[in-house]
Amino acid sequence: MKKQRAVVIGVGYIGMVHIQELRRLPNVELAGVVDKNQELARSIAAQYGIAHYSDSQSVLEDPKVDVIHNCTPNREHFPLNKAALLAGKEVFTEKPLALTTEESQELVMLARERKTRCGINFCYRYYPVVQEAHARVAKGELGTVYNVLGHYLQDWLLYDTDYSWRLDLQLAGSSNILADLGSHWCDLAQFITGLSIEEVFSDFRTTLSLRKKPKGGEALTFSKTQATEFEELPISLEDYGSLLLRFENGARGTFTTSELAAGRKCDIEIEVYGSQSSLAWRHERSAELWLGHRDKANELFFESPLLQSEETRRFARLPSGHPMGYHDAIYNLFADYYEYLQSKACGKFSELNFPDFEAGHREMLILEAAMASKEQGAWATVARYS
Fold first, then answer.
1. pTM higher than 0.90, yes or no?
2. Which end of the chain is more exposed for a tag (fewer CB within 10 A), N or C?
3. What is the CATH number for 156?
4. Is 347 left (phi over 0), alpha (psi -120 to 50) or beta?
């Protein structure tokens, strides 16, 4: 089978994660990189012995490139994803899928017209025990889902000297934290429960409305700035958000997110309570799945290729007792995506349940409803799509 030749566009924090995991896949050839920072891109290309493309257009015009990985800022997601599809490329993108639901709907329809499924990086569902949680709920082990609770907390924007392009309205779009951390959590909630979020009531806050942007270029995401000179900038995008949720079966939920939570680096927690039992998962202990019971002792299940359900054990790629991590979750997602591309190339139908443009569009619809709720001070319905 011919290897898929992939190019990563955007080599910041998440772009480098894509590069590292693509190199682990036996059916992928990492062919090149692109970045607006030409010096950085040339350095990475030389380090990995791959091509340095001058811009994204040169990638799209290269007939030897099969797949693009879109790791650019939010503003570039829609135009680059669209251009890649029109150029006949396969696409794997970072979230959010676009800046508006009109754009995300257009990408869904374009992918359908091209008879392909494009991937989006909702990677947290690919931890082995998160897959196990999904399987257990689907089998009815929890009974009817009543409540879904959780949070996603970080501290990397705690100080007024912390700055990121995600706070720039022109680059990030209408939302910072709900479009970023909120989309991950809502995808997890819907994936684990199998239930769609139908209504939301939201509250946003821009806690630090004035920040100091480093002169001479900002630091990479999650890194400390070494700058000594700053310019003060007004900030309008939120660094805190909370949602009340109503799911399609009548279940209720709550979600809170903040990037000002000192000591919390990437603290994701989700709890699902049903009529028979419950489960909970926390990213800081990502190899564990807590199982709660009314009439017997609670359980703590540890990821295992021997003990997980038949349909989920393939994601636990290490011997029992050896925990997998963030890079492995992305590897699992990439492995499913590229297995789909191989099946497609062979004319076979694939039922792999990886997050695609439709999942990205669903998250955009939730974000749209959350923004409407904030403006109206009322519950907002998440629009349906066909």
1. yes
2. C
3. 3.30.360.10
4. left
